[in-house]
Q: What sequence folds into this?
């Protein structure tokens, strides 16, 4: 647990999130930001941790899919609250495109990754959920980024990830590719060895350390 | 018990690219037919707990796509952990262990009918592995279930 997010504060936030109280969540997040919490700590120790718990609560039938989706929507709102604090760092001239694979509809993790790039001075283009490969390739060609990040939340979308990686590596041989997401909690990153330039990042902390 | 699952899963041989492509091409048909077969069962409400039909159909679709992922890049640990997760999550929502026995029986019969003999021989061991290990998946997920289970019965 981070220094600014004590256990009782986390539980209060989680309870507010599960109740669907956007205003209570907003109060907590705003206060933490005013107290100069590190953005990454806020993302991992509050947003990510609470959403993993929300997922677990659905698994054990403690909450409905509706409430899970509500929590996701509120968390996306809370990410937006951090935006005034995201763009304050020294700008680099680097650009990243962050996208979910085709058929991947869980976009929260990818959005957090894009924000971490912004926080570290990059220009990050977040394309959101379910990006068709053809469109992604066209956008890469247009933007010419230094790096592309691909997010995979559920393992059954692995074939779509492979198709995406094959397309990127065949069209843009020297482009660095970052791969991450909840899909890899039990492994499965070995498939990336087939794609030069593709690297797996386990956490936002690992990513930020490399930026 | 989990180690036993992992050890047996490690003996499964990933299908050839040809067999995987044949399976992948049939996913839509297989999911559709499988859902219709399950829906026709008179005991479906008991197997999945009433009003869970949409969840059962989503599970069937996700299951097919997951198996396709396994055939693309087989990882025994992911197979074991994912099936355990499915048993835990869906049993928590009222699905009976006999749901998987029934559903996998349908899958095996469909695969035999829809795939070539060669592809069926390559792919069916994965489904048979789950069938054979249902009692272990049930045992391992028993302790994860909450006290209040919808449609709770003693045979879960």
A:
């Amino acid at each position: 647990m981070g220094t600014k997010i004590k256990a009782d504060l986390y539980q209060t936030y989680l309870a507010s999130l599960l109740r669907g109280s956007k205003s209570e969540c907003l109060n907590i997040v705003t206060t933490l930001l005013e107290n100069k919490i590190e953005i990454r700590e806020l993302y991992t120790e509050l947003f990510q941790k609470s959403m993993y718990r929300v997922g677990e609560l659905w698994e054990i039938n403690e909450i409905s899919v509706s409430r899970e989706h509500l929590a996701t929507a509120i968390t996306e709102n809370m990410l937006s609250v951090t935006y005034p604090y995201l763009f304050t760092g020294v700008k680099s001239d680097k650009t990243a495109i962050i996208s979910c694979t085709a058929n991947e509809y869980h976009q929260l993790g990818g959005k957090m990754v894009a924000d971490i790039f912004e926080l570290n001075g990059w220009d990050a283009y977040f394309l959101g959920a379910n990006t068709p490969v053809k469109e992604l390739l066209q956008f890469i060609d247009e933007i010419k980024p230094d790096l592309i990040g691909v997010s995979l939340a559920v393992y059954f979308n692995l074939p779509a990830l492979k198709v995406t990686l094959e397309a990127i590596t065949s069209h843009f041989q020297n482009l660095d590719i970052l791969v991450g997401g909840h899909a890899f909690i039990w492994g499965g990153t070995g498939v990336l060895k087939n794609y030069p330039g593709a690297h797996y990042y386990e956490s936002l902390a690992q990513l930020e350390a490399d930026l | 018990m989990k180690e036993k699952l992992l050890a047996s899963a490690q003996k499964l041989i990933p299908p050839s690219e040809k067999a995987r492509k044949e399976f992948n091409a049939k996913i839509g048909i297989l999911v559709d037919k499988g859902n219709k077969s399950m829906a026709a069962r008179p005991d479906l409400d008991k197997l999945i707990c009433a009003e869970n039909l949409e969840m059962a159909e989503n599970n069937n679709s996700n299951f097919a796509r997951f198996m396709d992922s396994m055939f693309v890049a087989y990882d025994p640990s992911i197979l074991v952990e994912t099936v355990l997760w499915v048993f835990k999550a869906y049993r928590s929502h009222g699905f009976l262990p006999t749901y998987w026995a029934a559903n996998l029986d349908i899958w095996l019969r469909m695969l035999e009918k829809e795939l070539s003999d060669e592809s069926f021989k390559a792919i069916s061991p994965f489904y048979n592995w789950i069938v054979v290990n249902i009692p272990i998946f049930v045992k391992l997920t028993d302790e994860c279930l909450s006290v209040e289970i919808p449609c709770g019965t003693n045979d879960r």
